[in-house]
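Q: I'm writing up a methods section and want to include an example of the input and output format. Could you take the sequence below and give the corresponding predicted structure tokens, formatted cleanly so I can copy it straight into the document?
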Amino acid sequence: KLTGLGFGVKPVEVHSNDVPAGRVLSTEPAAGNSVEKGAEVILHVARPTERIDLIKLAPEATWRSAAGVLPFPGNDGDTRGFVLIREDAQLEDGTVDDVLETHPEWVAGGEIRGRFQLKESIVRGDHLRAEVGMLGWAGGNVDFVVMSGGQQLGRVNDGADGKLKKLDVDLSPAQGSRTIEIVVLAGVSSGQDWAIWRDLR
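A: Here is the clean output for your methods example:
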């Protein structure tokens, strides 16, 4: 109906966790400003929260350990560390599923990092969720870490205890950032650190 006032309207959907879908979040130019006849007003309209499957995006992420940049998919015998999608994997809780496997470099205190570039900035209320643990025959113990914008946002330790742990990290402190980094840190030994992320989103 605003078109009849002499200007066009261009709706642009914006991710929001705070405002119901379809509501206007802001305008360009901002409310209270005048526009010339024939100008275009952009409406930033809230859209529903969407699920982003980070396992599907893993091939596009940048993977590295202290030994340097790692290929995707990696080789599960690579002593520099490796990452790959393991299909029908037997997990430590007895279930079978497709998972993202991330093994840190084969040294004491080894690590592996995956940096994901997001299409949109993180907003307040965004969360990273997953189940983390080990492959069924692994015997390791690692820390699973979530970072963004250079800050650690969540961390959980897990070893081969027959259970997967739920990871639910509030990303709100990193709002405005367009990157997510997941990290696996080994302890005194990384020899059995066959660490997995299930349903990473």
